[in-house]
Amino acid sequence: MSTTAMSSPRWWLSVARLLVRHPSLWATAVVQTLRLAAPGWWRRSPFLPLPDPAYLRFRLETQYGSDQDPVAADVITYLHWCRDVAATS
Q1: pLDDT at 7 > cutoff 80
Q2: Which of 15, 38, 64, 87 satisfies CB 3.0 to 4.6 Å to 68 for a cystine?
């Protein structure tokens, strides 16, 4: 599985465009970004709450296998799921 697609600004822009259409998911997106961020992310450059690369590779391979790139629309589906699970907890 290549994480190259996710390192592309074009991929992140497509996720942002989709997320802009779902304001009810904005808070969920912020919460999930912080939950998935590598510990101590604020101490290391690029000072962004990014997930650990090994964890991200593992999650992408378990979802997509080793020969498919991630789909931006799946981020919206994931955020809906996160919000629904939090509402039932």
Answers
A1: no
A2: 64
